[in-house]
Automatic annotation (TrEMBL):
Keyword Transmembrane helix included in the entry's annotation: yes
Domain (DUF1980): residue spans on this chain: 244-334
Keywords of the record: Membrane, Transmembrane, Transmembrane helix
The organism's place on the tree of life at top rank: Bacteria
This protein's name: Putative repeat protein (TIGR03943 family)
Annotated region described as Disordered, given as residue ranges: 74-94, 133-168
PANTHER family noted in UniProt: UPF0703 PROTEIN YCGQ
Transmembrane region(s): 37-58, 173-191
Pfam families hit by this protein: DUF1980_C (PF21537)
Length: 334
């Protein structure tokens, strides 16, 4: 993967983390206590991506500046002023001409280099200085015509690379950006009825630790709002019967499973990956008309003794009122 792709992915992923942490979508995946860590992780990714991009730009600018400064020096070194073409300059030109003629004679006779230039000639033979992507033209009849390196390799049926033997990576690496953009545009929903039907409902582990301890009495109110987690725990483990005859209010989403209509919530310990459902069985048929994943607030009473291991601690609930509500911002219980 190219550095440009890595930097873009860092910025997009960091931005996505910061976005879901600020607008509250992170509650679909983790507990509220994780928000500071999500923001910190997103900010670090953003900073790393920005620093990497700035460093690459500065490096490219320095390289371009160095190349621009070295360019005039290279041109000046390859072209001598006309006024210097006298005295020693003429002698140097004559010497170069004699060496060149000697090389041509040696090549024609099939012999090696002459005039004591064996070492220099060997070095030149060991390093063939031809432009990248070209092959040497060995036709002596073209000595005064095309350049000695001949024609491009592509004309001879050889592919031309980038001159350094590198192969450019496939652009499919940019497909990694798709799931990150999906978080920006459409955040995946929270777990719902499908997760409940695929996972056996069970009493929360915290309830087992208080199985032999007395549950505190409920407040002296006509209708007591309660969390689904607490209702299932008391129905399955409270031997004191603190729910008997009491009207409570609970909220959750509808699940149709095996001919029964359940009201469910998902309890998480850390994140959505460890979610476990807690459910109550809605009696009377008043909630049967609502489709799965519809959020309801119901008031009514628990039927004593109906939550046991055989039915995965799902007590029967007789509703007095059934009200449709919007899904809460935080859909899980803890």
């Amino acid at each position: 993967m190219r550095r440009e792709t890595q930097n873009v992915l860092l910025i997009l992923l960091g931005g996505a983390l910061v976005k879901i942490a600020i607008n509250g979508d992170y509650l679909r995946y983790v507990k509220p206590a994780q928000q500071p860590w999500i923001i910190a992780g997103g900010v670090v990714m953003l900073l790393l991506g920005i620093v990497a991009i700035v460093a690459d730009l500065l490096r490219a600018r320095s390289a371009a500046k160095a190349a621009a400064q070295a360019g005039p020096d290279v041109v000046a070194a390859g072209h001598q002023p006309p006024e210097a073409a006298d005295g020693q300059g003429c002698e140097t030109s004559d010497a170069q001409a004699r060496v060149t003629a000697g090389h041509h004679l040696a090549d024609s006779a099939g012999a090696g280099p002459i005039d004591g230039h064996a070492e220099e000639s060997g070095q030149r033979q060991g390093i063939e200085e031809y432009p990248a992507g070209f092959r040497q033209n060995k036709d002596p009849s073209l000595a005064d015509g095309p350049p000695p390196w001949g024609e491009p390799d592509s004309a001879a049926g050889h592919p031309v690379g980038d001159g350094h033997g590198h192969h450019h990576p496939a652009r499919s690496a940019w497909l990694l950006v798709v799931p990150v953009l999906a978080v920006f545009l459409v955040a995946p929903p929270a777990l719902g009825a499908d997760s409940v039907t695929r996972t056996e409902a069970r009493v929360p582990q915290s309830a087992a630790t208080t199985a032999e301890s007395a549950f505190p009495p409920l407040p002296a109110e006509a209708v007591v709002p309660m969390a689904m987690n607490e209702v299932v725990s008391r129905a399955g483990w409270d031997s004191g019967g603190t729910l008997n005859g009491r009207t409570i209010a609970i909220s959750g989403f509808v699940v149709h499973n095996g001919g029964q209509t359940l009201l469910a919530r998902l309890v998480i310990s850390c994140c959505a990956a460890d979610a476990s459902p807690v459910t109550v069985h809605l009696k009377g048929g008043e909630a049967d008309r609502f489709p799965s994943d519809t959020w309801l607030r119901v008031t009514g009473q628990i039927v004593p003794g109906t939550a046991n291991e055989a039915n995965s601690y799902t007590p029967d609930f007789v509703p007095a009122t059934v009200e449709r509500i919007t899904a809460p911002k935080d859909p899980y219980e803890y």
